[in-house]
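Annex B. Sample input.
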Amino acid sequence: MTGKVSIIGGGHVGISAAFTMLLKNTIRELVLFDRDTERMRGEQLEFQHSLTFLGTAKITAAESYRDFKNSDVIVFTAGRAQLPGESRLNLVKSNLEVIKQILPQAIKYSPDSVIIMVTNPVDILTYQASQLLKLAKGKIFGSGTSLDSARFRFHLSEFLGINPKNIHAYVLGEHGDSSFPTISHADIGGQPLATMKDFSSKKIQEAFLKTKNAASTIISAKGSTYYAIGVVINQLVDAVLRDTKRVYPISVPLTGQYGYHDVSISVPCVIGKNGVEKILEVPLSEEEKKLMDKSVKILKEIII
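Annex B, continued. Sample output.
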């Protein structure tokens, strides 16, 4: 791989992801694509001015779809952002139109790229994009509940007094209101979370409620969320470029896994140079399976 990443969408999320990649020296070449090409030239120049203190990277403000040529990864962040008090599901129609206009043209010039969908509602749009593009299995996935899981681990760490990196607990399902925590197989250092000294169902629900309300809390306070998802995007890109085989809860089209078809939803997946290289079917409790069923039902009702 050449380390070339193209970001579609130059809003807060796309630019935060780009800057994170530069800070972490994840990439060798960066393409910024947005309908506001003049602003992308401004972002390009400011990023270039930081390279004296960072790694070496070629940065391009795209003039046409030809600039996507030979991208290892294309990150899609374009579209209308979520408004205060608005459900992510309300964004479907407007953002689906953006996908139809842009992604087929991008793939035309870079057919072997791994596509990472970030635009909300990410589960719906990941599924629709997979149907539209007809890429090889695993080549397209969404950021899904990776950020939800990170938020949940942080809020668990607050009362457990343990570094969130060492808390293995996923939030799965829809990246939205029907997401749910998987406590049945969560652990810390191999010890089941449910057997930890400070564990209580009330504390778990409090941590998850903070997780569930995080986006709306941040949006109400500052208009939108972008730093944390920018870090998540960098992690996913790095997993592809370095073929790390790390496991992330991401939104992926299911073809029978967990008993579901024709839907994209977040489950733990192994990420490597080919995108999603394996979907892990972790055992869910009876209650968790019901919650997953609920997420799938909600998403299937919205799929256009």
